[in-house]
Each structure stands twice: as C-alpha cells, then as structure tokens.
Amino acid sequence: MFAIAATPGSELPSIIEMPEPRAPGTGEILCRTLEIGICGTDREILLSQAPLVPEGESQLVLGHECLARVEAVGSGVTELAPGNLVVPGVRRAIGRYVQRVDMLPLGTFTERGIMYEHGFSSSLWIDRPEHLHRVDPAIADVAVFTEPLAVVEKGASEALLLSQARLGTGAWQAPRTLVSGQGPIGFAAILACRARGWNVTMLGRDQPDTFRSQLALELGADYRTLASTAAGPGDLETEGFDLVLECTGSDEVMLETARWLRGCGVMVWLGSTRIPEPASLNVQKLMRDSLMLNHLHIGCVNAAPRDFRDALAHLAWMKQMSPAALAKIFTRRTSPADSLPYFTGRESQGIKTVLHYA
C-alpha cells in the first residue's frame, strides 16, 4: 500500500510504501480513500522542511481533505455501514476535554495529515465513527471540498454569533461581505456566504476577465481587483463591509481590507503562513481603527462537527443551484502517481487539485 509523505529536511513529497492496516477493532472503522484534495497547508508543510511526524516515525503521511468509503466496521459500530461515503474530521483531542475540539490549546490535540498523526493519502486507514461525517451520494463528486469549506463555515458562524451577541439577534440579516483571495478558501468563502443569502464580493489580483474572476461571478459574487480598492471607501458606512473573510494570509492584504470594515465590523483570518516574514507595516492604524469602530478580529482554524454539517448541506445547496459553476472549482483531477508536482506549486488560474484513487 502506498502513501504520499513529507520528510524532515526535504521540500519534496515522496511516494512511500506502508503496511495495510489490520482489521477494525471494537468501535473502529476501516475506510478506503476515494479522493484527496491538495491544500496550501500541504505545500507549507513541505516548504517548512519540518513536518510534525508521529512519535517513532520518520515521515508524515499527507492528506487531510478526503472523501472515503467505509470498507468494514468493528463490533459495536452502528452509526455507519460498509458502502457508506464519509469525510473525516482532522483534529483529534489527546485525552478528554470538555470544549470543542477545534478550540483546544496547542499540545492537546493531533491533526491527521498535519501534525503528529498520519493523514489519508494511503489507500486504507482506520478511524472511529465520531470523527466521520456521512456523505449523501448525490454530492459525492464535490464532497472532497467539505473540509476546507467547513473551516470557512466556522468563520462565518462565529462572526454571526458574536455580532448578534453584541448587536442583537436581528442584526446581520444580510451582512455585506468581502472575501480576499482567489484560492480554494476564497471560493469556499463565496459558497458559505451565498448559501446564507449574504451579499459577497471577491477581491483579487486577477483582471476581471480571467477564469477565476469570472467563476466568482458565476457563483453569485461580485468581483473587484485589489488595485481598484487602493483609494479606500468614500463613505465607510455606505460603501464598507460588515464582514471581511481574509483568505490570503498576506499581512498587506489584511491591512488593506481592514480599511473597508464598517463600524462594528468583523474580520476573520482564514489564511496564514508557517514561515512568517518580518515586515514593517502600519499595524498601529489597524489597532486605532479597530478600537474606534468596535471591530472584531477572529482567528479561525479547523472546524467543529456543526461546521462539517453546514458544509455538506451547503455543497448540496450549491450543487442544486449552480452545478456547473461548482464543478469548475475542481480545476484538475489527477492520479496519486502523477500528483507530486501539484504538492509543490499551483497552476496558473488553478483552484482545487484533487487526487482520484482508482
């Protein structure tokens, strides 16, 4: 059995041999990978040359965006049966904790395919039913996008809950939302907003006539170029945004888009880099504006089971509303054997690359 792995000291992924897993024990499930999505996190793990390998292992098996099929179940499992389609959650608590797993402090969890636990790029793997979310076969062709969409769903839900706690339950019935970035998370943000009935604008570096810019329009968003925002809003309260979903991980873009937040606006940070570069930027203005305008800035990573359920429901909604546009997010499907170049670089105008397992 093969898997795709990151090795300490190397920026390059490798295909390695792994033993097939044992039969599932009590309360366990054996799953077969059908599709894996390549993520910017995979590329950053490789670029760091310092993957967080499981204890006693020399490599980290990659792959945390996954669609799989249940192959066999151990005794005591009643939630799922062989043949069911599932997407796995990524984060796993170490020991018992009362708070949500996506809110645990560092050192109290592992993340499959990201830190201290192997991912899903092997053909077969063992898991437990509490970490698996059942997929309707009707959305099997897009369900590999569930995990990245779930992260954005968390950001949107947290922003809504906090705003309504501050401003009243009637607030934010149709918040004006700005999404920065044209990568997979940016397009996931459009889906999460459109499914909620929110007005959404994508902000990117592309010209309006490119594939990605036009796809934003097909999915129901508006589109602006980053250059067009340089002057800032004329009147902040009429031209600004209630919510900014920052999907680039760029501090410069974050500071630029923060200027467009209305009073009591919220910014959710959905992008970052594992290797931050020192910069000298006017963060004091961000602090001053946030103070004077009662802004919230939220860091958002991983997702709760609630967010996976929202992601699956919203993929089904978008497939019904705009199936052709949704399908265009998957700009390349390839075999695992041919996938290694896509772990180290993006294609021009590419969005989501998916590995299809025979």
Strand content: 25-35%
pLDDT averaged residue by residue: 95
Largest sheet: 7 strands, mixed
**CA gyration radius, whole angstroms:** 20 Å
Helix count?
9
Low-confidence stretches: none
Q: What CATH architecture of the largest domain do you see?
A: Alpha-Beta Complex
Q: Please give the CATH class of the largest domain.
A: Alpha Beta
CATH H-level superfamily of the largest domain: Medium-chain alcohol dehydrogenases, catalytic domain
Shape: globular
Element pattern in H and E: EEEHEEEEEEEEHEHEHEHEHEHEHHEE
Helices and strands: which structural class? Answer: alpha/beta
Number of domain units: 2
CATH fold topology of the largest domain: Quinone Oxidoreductase, Chain A, domain 1
List how many beta strands DSSP finds: 19
Q: Give the % helix.
A: 25-40%
Describe this structure in words.
InterPro entries: ADH-like_N (IPR013154), Glu_dehyd_C (IPR031640), GroES-like_sf (IPR011032), NAD(P)-bd_dom_sf (IPR036291). Its cofactor is Zn(2+). It comes from Pirellula staleyi (strain ATCC 27377 / DSM 6068 / ICPB 4128). Residues 26-87 form the Alcohol dehydrogenase-like N-terminal domain. This is Alcohol dehydrogenase GroES domain protein. With 358 residues, the chain is an alpha/beta fold. It has 2 domains: 2-142 and 330-356, Alpha-Beta Complex (Quinone Oxidoreductase, Chain A, domain 1), CATH 3.90.180.10; 148-299, 3-Layer(aba) Sandwich (Rossmann fold). The protein is 27% helix and 26% strand. It is built from 9 helices and 19 strands. Strands 3, 5, 6, 10, 11, 18 and 19 form a 7-stranded mixed β-sheet that branches. Strands 14-13-12-15-16-17 form a 6-stranded parallel β-sheet, with helices on both faces. Helix 2 crosses helix 3 (184-195), helix 2 crosses helix 8 and helix 3 crosses helix 8. It is globular. It starts with a strand and ends with a strand. The mean pLDDT is 95.
